[in-house]
Structures are given as C-alpha cells and as structure tokens.
Design brief:
binds magnesium ion, alpha+beta, binds guanosine-5'-triphosphate
C-alpha cells in the first residue's frame, strides 16, 4: 500500500500495529520499578559501600546490569561491582570471603560468598517486609570493569531510541521470564543474552537499521589506551547527543512491527547451526571463531554443548554469551519464538495477545 494512501485510509494492519504498540507500551510501563524501590536500592548501595570501605578504604561500589542500563523491571535484582583504586588489595576471592564475613556480622542480609565462581561474588538477599514487599537480591563482584562498560554500551543504545528499544527489551524480558526461558542455570538464555539479540536484530537485520553500530562509527579522536580492559577493546562511540544531531534512523516501523519481525526472524531465519550473532561485527560463522559444534565427536560432549547457540560478547569477543544454552534449552527457546510468531500472526486483539504471549 503506498504510504500516502495508508495515511488517508489507515489500513486494518496499520490499526493493529498501532493498537499493539500502545498496548506493549502500557504493559511495560506498569512493570517499571517505582521511585520508592529505586530509592531503597540506592540506600542499600550506599550502606554496602560504607561497609566495604571499612575493609578497603579506596573502594567504590557501582551499579551495573539492569539497575544501571535502564532495562530494569520491578523487583529485579541488583548487580553491584566494587572497584578498588589502590595497588594494595586482596584478590577477588579473598575479598569475597572477608566481605562475606563482615556483612554477615554487620547486616541483616542473608549472605552467600562464592569465592570460587568464574567471577567471584557475594550473594545477598533480604526477606520481604512491609516496606519492601519483594525483598532484595543483590550480587557484589569485584573489578568487573568489562561488565560496567557493556552496561554503558547497552545504556547508550537505549538512549538513541528510548521508546522503541526499552519497550521491546522490557517486553521480551517479561515474556522470557514468564515463559521460563531466561535461566542460564537451566540451559536457557540470560537477560543480557536477550538484550544482545534485540540489538543485533535492530543493528544488523532490520533494513533500514533502527540503530547504528556504535562500535564501528569512526572515532572523533584517536582511541586512547584506556579504551582497553584486560586486552579487550572496549571503545565505542558514546557521545549520543552528538550522534542524534547527525544521525537519525530512517526506519519508522512501530514497536509492534519490530516485535513481530523479531519473533519471526529468530523463529525462522537466524542460522542457529552455523551463525554467530555479533552486535560488533554482524553475522559471523561459528567456524571462523572456532565455535563449531562438532557433532561427530562425542568426546567433546562438553564443548559441543557450549556452542549450540552463539552470541558474541561485544567486548570479550572470544566469549559466547549463550554458552550455557543446551540442546533442550535451544529447542525450548526456538519453540517459544515460533509460538509467539504464531499468536501474533493471527492478529488478535492487542491486550489478549499480550496476555496469551506471557501466559505462565
Ligand atoms: P535482570 O537481572 O534479569 O533484570 O537482567 P540484567 O539486565 O541485570 O541482566 P543480567 O542479570 O543477565 O546481567 C547483568 C549484567 O551482567 C549485564 O548487563 C552484563 O553487564 C553482565 N553480564 C551478564 N552475563 C554476562 C556474560 O555472560 N558475559 C559478560 N561479559 N557479562 C555478562
Ligand atoms: Mg541483573
């Protein structure tokens, strides 16, 4: 339908997309954290920072993950990272033990130190109370500067097109949690993984793209050495104000159209067997990264399992964010993408569609 014609006589499709977009927006708005919840979390962060400083005076406790990148839902957990600006510091695993002891003595949190995890952390939780109906869950890690930077990258992407991106991401987070496919521990994908899938789709699949590739925009100044963390290049174009003065997406699709297309793409078109989704570099081959799953060799059962589904981390490019996804997990995830596609293809009433999509 020619665009002009569409404007004068909004087609049935157009109405469906508009109605669904509005419903998606309303649906996520009611799930955002309240101002009170955010204030309580900030108080908790400050309290913990004060306590940590009694062990390591030169330290800062920073928020990352959803609390810091604008993708948080009501009652989501808090990810905190402790940075120590001093050369005399304990190792991360020792810090986890010492901090665990201190918090056990000085606070009402349930404390669980995990000094031997891939990334050593202290897990904290607070039981629900009248002022805090869902309690609090919080992880504290140390020196995880890459996580702080990837949080900032996600936040910058969200700032370019706040309404469409936050609505899409937040809806997919609720949907994946309710459909039980958001659990790396059980063989499905982390929230971080789903956000990367959305960004990959908006940067590299949609044509015209909804987002530019912030890691490929030519820098205004030579890239400084500081833009490397543990040997990983973490540079990206982060002057979003300037970017938005100079660049505007010519993609004008509604959130509903993007969501429908997102489900269709991951249900049908993404090459799970050979492809790697990379927001940095577009579609890559598993082969070129040494991530192919060699089905012929059962000896490598473990490594094969690790590369069923491949999503490259934007900075740690030798790291597969979907490494925990098992064969069954991937089957389940793809099944959910197909189910969602099927439901939306029937063009149901918007509210009914969302309810059905997120049925537990
Ligand atoms: P919810 O906790 O479900 O609200 O989502 P979230 O946005 O906090 O995401 P998640 O808990 O999955 O991850 C929190 C942060 O940890 C992310 O923003 C990343 O910074 C970091 N992170 C999580 N998983 C990985 C991973 O596999 N690799 C790397 N490098 N960072 C990760
Ligand atoms: Mg989190």
């Amino acid at each position: 339908v020619p665009v002009q014609h569409q404007r004068r006589h909004p087609s049935k499709h157009r109405l469906f997309f508009l109605e669904l977009s509005q419903a998606l927006f309303d649906f996520v708005v009611q799930l955002l954290p309240t101002a009170e919840e955010l204030a309580v979390k900030e108080d908790v962060r400050k309290l913990l920072e004060r306590l940590i400083r009694t062990i390591q005076p030169e330290s800062r406790l920073l928020s990352f993950g959803s609390t810091a990148n604008g993708f948080s839902l009501r009652n989501s957990d808090m990810d905190l990272c402790c940075l120590i600006d001093s050369d005399e510091r304990l190792s991360a695993s020792d810090l986890v033990v010492v901090l665990g002891d201190l918090l056990e003595r000085e606070t009402k949190f349930h404390v669980k130190p995990l000094p031997h995890a891939r990334i050593p952390i202290v897990k904290l939780s607070l039981d629900p109370s009248p002022g805090l109906p869902s309690g609090i869950a919080c992880d504290i890690g140390f020196e995880n500067r890459l996580a702080l930077e990837n949080t900032r990258l996600l936040m910058c992407y969200a700032m370019i097109d706040p309404t469409r991106i936050r609505t899409l991401v937040l809806f997919l987070k609720v949907w994946s949690k309710r459909r039980k496919i958001n659990s790396p521990y059980h063989g499905t994908l982390s929230s971080y993984g789903y956000v990367l899938l959305v960004l990959y789709f908006l940067i590299h699949v949609k044509n015209p793209p909804v987002l530019p590739n912030l890691q490929q925009i030519p820098p205004l100044r030579p890239i400084s050495k500081d833009a490397h963390i543990n040997g990983h290049n973490t540079w990206f174009f982060d002057d979003i104000e300037l970017l938005c003065q100079r660049w505007r997406s010519s993609n004008t699709e509604t959130v509903a159209e993007l969501l429908i297309d997102f489900f269709r793409y991951y249900a049908r078109d993404f090459s799970y067997n050979t492809g790697v989704a990379s927001i940095r570099a577009g579609l890559l081959k598993k082969e070129s990264k040494g991530w192919q799953n060699d089905l012929s060799n059962s000896k490598y059962n473990d490594s094969r399992e690790r590369n069923r589904f491949c999503i490259e981390d934007p900075f740690e490019i030798d790291f597969n964010v979907a490494r925990c996804v098992t064969k069954e997990g991937l089957y389940q995830i793809r099944g959910e993408f197909m189910r969602a596609s099927r439901i939306l293809a029937m063009r149901p009433r918007a509210l009914a569609a969302l309810t059905q999509l997120c049925e537990e």
